[in-house]
Write a structure and sequence with these properties.
The chain is α/β, with parallel strands linked by helices. It has two domains: 87 residues; 220 residues, von Willebrand factor, type A domain (Rossmann fold, 3-Layer(aba) Sandwich), CATH 3.40.50. 39% of the residues lie in helices and 19% in strands. It contains nine helices and ten strands. The protein is rod-shaped, with a radius of gyration of 34 Å. The relative contact order is 0.16.
Length: 329
């Protein structure tokens, strides 16, 4: 049991006042020694004091805000701990689905990605999901959580106006930080969604390689590719390519050297992006242990209800007492 305002509990001794203080009568009698003792009246009088004390006790407890503590219950489900790393560079505002028949511009990349990630989250009920965005630097949005409302709100926020450059290294290192203080559920993954790639320094590459292995994290990279642009799967880059590799291809080859599972996808439109998310959804359906949070119960209303009941009983007795004097007149 806990209290929202525990200092109010210092008023609890006031609840004893109805029992300790004698009742003052409106009528006085010169001599009552010859009257016989009346145990029933004495008992009823004491009972009324107890009712008044209970009413005061419940009012004070209600003001203190009593509630039970949150509980965590271990469950077995199917899902994963997932860190979503979302590109917020300016190019994410480019159209992704092409023009419509009426000549209007279709969805931007950021809007399409947010819509499909929302569908992905809604289809998975047992995941813990955190969100990191990046442009010039990484932006911490949401820690790993089971709260669907928080996750969906964070994803929705990524569909707004984008910023400048593409610092994938900063986004990935920040995403690894999501897992540091969270117990391993048995299935962990980072989903990186970007429409390009920046160069990642050697130091960051080594850190990522070590950290992903240490925390047992798989990596999925979804590249939102421009039609006719560079494809990371082009075999001409695999050997005997004398020119400098495009940044996307260079990053792809680095990811292939990771010591943990890695998969890459290319999406040129919302349909191919949906297919990539569906494939990730199937791969990350593994049995996991997770803790379901059961919120504490608020007892404030119950305290006030008991207090009202006690006061109602006291008023009823008072009403009967008045009727008794009126009848004797």
């Amino acid at each position: 049991m806990a209290f929202v305002h525990p200092l109010i509990l210092w008023l609890l001794p006031l609840a004893l006042l109805p029992i300790l203080l004698e009742r003052s009568h409106t009528r006085s009698y010169s001599w009552v020694d010859m009257l016989p003792s009346d145990p029933l009246s004495n008992f009823i009088g004491f009972l009324l004091k107890v009712l008044a004390a209970i009413a005061l006790l419940c009012i004070i407890l209600g003001l203190a805000g009593p509630h039970s503590l949150e509980q965590k219950v271990e469950r077995i489900g199917v899902g994963a701990q997932i860190g979503m790393v979302i590109d917020r560079s300016a190019s994410m505002d480019d159209p992704f689905s092409g023009g419509t028949a009426e000549g209007r511009v279709g969805e931007t990349k950021s809007v399409a990605a947010a819509r499909l990630m929302t569908d992905f989250v809604n289809a998975r009920k047992n995941d813990m999901i955190g969100v990191i965005t990046f442009s010039n630097s990484a932006m911490y949005v949401l820690p790993l959580t089971e709260s669907r409302e928080a996750i969906l709100a964070a994803i929705k926020a990524t569909a707004g106006n984008s910023l400048f450059q593409t610092n994938i290294g900063g986004g990935l290192t920040s995403a690894v930080g999501l897992f540091e203080k969270v117990p391993d559920s048995g299935s962990r993954a980072i989903i990186l969604i970007s429409d390009g790639a920046g160069r990642v320094s050697w130091e960051i590459q080594q850190k990522l390689r070590d950290w992903l292995q240490r925390y047992n994290i798989s990596l999925y990279w979804v590249v939102l590719r421009q039609p006719g642009g560079v494809t990371i799967f082009d075999p001409k880059y695999e050997s005997h390519y004398e020119e400098a590799l495009p940044t996307e291809v260079e990053l792809y080859y680095y990811f292939k050297t990771l010591r943990t599972p890695f998969s890459a996808y290319e999406a040129e439109d919302p349909k191919s992006l949906a297919a990539a998310m569906a494939d990730i959804n199937q791969k990350e359906k593994k049995p996991i242990k997770y803790f379901e949070k059961i919120p504490g119960h608020d007892f404030t209303q119950l305290c006030y209800l008991i207090a009202v009941l006690m006061i109602g009983l006291l008023l009823s007795v008072k009403y009967l007492e008045v009727r008794t004097w009126s009848a004797k007149k």
